[in-house]
Amino acid sequence: MAGEIFWKERAIATITSTGGSATNLSAVSAGADIDFRAAGGNADDDAAIFELTCQWATVTGIAAGTIIADLFLVPKMDGTNLSQQLDLSAGASYIPFTCRAGSFTAAKVPIANTDTKFVTLAFDSIAILPLLYTPHMLNRSGQTISANWILKIISARHQYS
């Protein structure tokens, strides 16, 4: 109906990790950037949600309700260099909380060697500035996340008809 503002979904963007496996408490880069700048693939979007697909060889200790990973979006203010220094030390990674975009939580116990999907809570335009971001995943599952995990983003915008 004319004169209405409504949500309009965007295409799903898939980032296949090049960061390899992640031991517990280790952060790895997703290997590609997400662009919310004016000419970027997610320009003018108001909200976003992320999906993580991953698996473990061992799932001991991963129970329903376990936060298996945190997602961080680290800005590149100049479009090239990360704006924060990150500690990506294996088993002791630290990324500033100010870059945290959300958490992936297990709804049930995952099955070993089987792809499992997790989503973040949607976040809105207050958190999405028109910048280039490098996503990082910090493994908090207690086990090693196998290589070749996949991160997807779907964003949305308001549209006036």
* N-to-C order of helices and strands: EEEEEEEEEEE
Helix proportion range: under 10%
Tell me the quaternary state.
single chain
Give Rg in angstroms: 16 Å
Total strand segments: 11
CATH class: Mainly Beta
Provide the β-strand percentage band.
35-45%
- Shape descriptor reads globular
Walkthrough of the structure:
With 161 residues, the protein is mostly beta strands. It has one domain: Jelly Rolls (Sandwich). Helices cover 0% and strands 39% of the residues. It has no helices and eleven strands. Strands 1, 2, 5, 8, 9 and 11 form a six-stranded antiparallel beta sheet that branches.
What are the key terms here?
single chain, 161 residues, mainly beta, Jelly Rolls, 6-stranded antiparallel β-sheet, 5-stranded antiparallel β-sheet, 11 strands
Brief overview:
The chain is an all-beta fold and 161 residues long. The chain is built from no helices and 11 strands.
Blueprint (SSEs and pairs):
Layout: E1 5-9, E2 13-16, E3 27-29, E4 34-35, E5 47-54, E6 67-76, E7 100-105, E8 116-119, E9 123-124, E10 132-139, E11 150-160
Antiparallel strand pairs: 1-11, 2-11, 3-10, 4-10, 5-8, 5-9, 5-11, 6-7, 6-10
